[in-house]
Amino acid sequence: MTSSEELINQICAAAQNISPLAQQSNVYRASLAYILQNIRSFITAIQPLKKKTLTQLEIQALQRLNGVFSYFTSVLPLLGKKWLNAALNWHSMHMHNYIDQFRKTLIDICKQLSLDPNQVIVFDTLQDQVNKRADLEHLKKALSSIRESAISCINSIDIQQLIEIRLRSISNHLQTKSAVKAGKIAAHPSSDAIPII
To answer: How far apart are CA 17 and CA 181, in angstroms?
Structure first.
């Protein structure tokens, strides 16, 4: 049977695999930087559990987390060099929704481990909005640049149409972020404060 220390060390190793993959991402960087902060604080919070005898529920929660971290490491490479495939095939908010769900899972597991999620997972709604807006603006700019260079490609009309659809979707999402759009807050994207490049 795996000891508490071995199990938490496995979790830490899985979490360490996430950071370098996030650093190689070309898109959604602000939101990734923010979730990396949450992962780091979670890993710090579970260290004292190494000395504790875990209940079956706590063991299952940590095993579940190990699977969630492993899956995240399979998603992140899609945001690297081949990000365009993901950008064209996923809904504009797909990655943001995935990161939101990932954060909710961390919060849920905190509760199962009797940790206070408000202490462990620092989350600011305004910062999250700034990050999402920065991600979408960057994605829009990157897609616009690709659209210009796609003119000489085979199937360029198909690619341009896909890019156009995605750009319209991004523009619609950007319009819904009115508080950020109006410049009412002075926050900067998380990737500015904690670069992941």
So the answer is: 34
Q: Choose among 120, 22, 105: nearest CA to 64.
A: 105
Query: Is the torsion defined by CA of 47, 53, 57, 60 positive or negative?
Result: positive
- Dist. CA 21–CA 95, nearest whole Å: 15
Taking alpha carbons only, the member of 105, 157, 155, 99 closest to residue 128 is 99
> Cα(44)–Cα(38) distance, rounded to whole angstroms?
10
pLDDT in 10s for each residue of the chain, 197 residues: 678 899 999 999 999 999 999 999 999 999 999 999 999 999 999 999 999 999 999 999 999 999 999 999 999 999 998 888 888 888 888 999 999 999 999 999 999 999 999 999 999 999 999 999 999 999 888 888 876 665 555 555 566 667 776 667 777 767 665 544 444 555 677 766 544 44
CA atoms within 13 A on the CB side of 26: 16
Helical H segments across 91-155, by residue range:
94-112, 117-120, 125-149
CA 65 remoteness from chain centre: 15
